[in-house]
Amino acid sequence: MKWQEKCLYTTCVLAAMSMLAVSLWAKATHREPGKPPEANTEIKIDNFAFWPETLTVPVGTTVQWTNRDDIPHTVVSDDKSTFKSKALDTDDKFSFTFTKAGTYPYFCSVHPKMTGKVVVQ
């Protein structure tokens, strides 16, 4: 095999591997190539804080809170009626779907100094 043929073969193999890698990456992230990534929709409860403290999402997004602390926490909207979780033990989750634009402050009723906010656009 001449060096030009080897270069062409190597180039074709690398191109095929790159296309395969992009395809696998797209499947792993559950989206098609060229589509923008979806907004982060998870808030972690850890070290007596909500992370991120402020989350911005589009209307219609379901946000999930996960308690990573070793003590119980709650997720309660400031008006105490929009959403309210039960006491979440370690690794428990709570979800809420935001159907209207607005700013939704919330807190932990067990530890009221723990606060966060979801901004829905």
- CATH first level of the largest domain: Mainly Beta
What oligomeric state do these chains adopt?
Answer: single chain
What is the count of structural domains? 2
Strand order of the largest sheet: 2-1-4-6
Number of helices: 1
What's the end-to-end separation, in Å?
60 Å
Instruction: Please describe the biggest sheet, giving its number of strands, its sense, and whether it closes into a barrel.
Output: 4 strands, mixed
Order of helices and strands: HEEEEEEEE
Summarize the structure.
The chain has about 120 residues and is α/β, with parallel strands linked by helices. It contains one helix and eight strands; from the N terminus they run αββββββββ.
Provide structural commentary.
The structure is a single chain. With 121 residues, the chain is an alpha/beta fold. It folds into 2 domains: 1-36; 42-120, Cupredoxins -  blue copper proteins (Immunoglobulin-like), CATH 2.60.40. The protein is 21% helix and 29% strand. It is built from 1 helix and 8 strands.
Features:
four-stranded mixed beta sheet; Immunoglobulin-like; alpha/beta; 121 residues
